[in-house]
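User: quick one, fold this
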Amino acid sequence: MDRKTVTIFRALSHPSRLRIVKMLEERELCVCEVRAILGLSTSTVSKHLTILCDAGLITDSRDGKWVNYKLNSTTRDTLIRPLLSALKTGLETELQIKADREKAHTVDRNKLCSL
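Assistant:
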């Protein structure tokens, strides 16, 4: 198995990273929004986001002082694209995933990140 495939599956093997992927199906989020939803430290969330970015599952873009993270839905990668598609319909019955996705709609970076 090639290194890239292992990197992608390792990135998806952690529950918090799966939760992040499911949150990002709802909308782009910044670190402080993801931190607020997961209840983890900023450094831990940043590490999870870096792992997902390095695997090619998500991308980041700067918008002023914000760094926004989103799913890499425009990838042409023959492994990532079908995985993201499969994840879109998977885990929908998990209570934690449902709660995370609801929170993703209500978190407000302007309130969170100015603390």
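User: anything notable?
Assistant: The longest strand covers residues 58-63.
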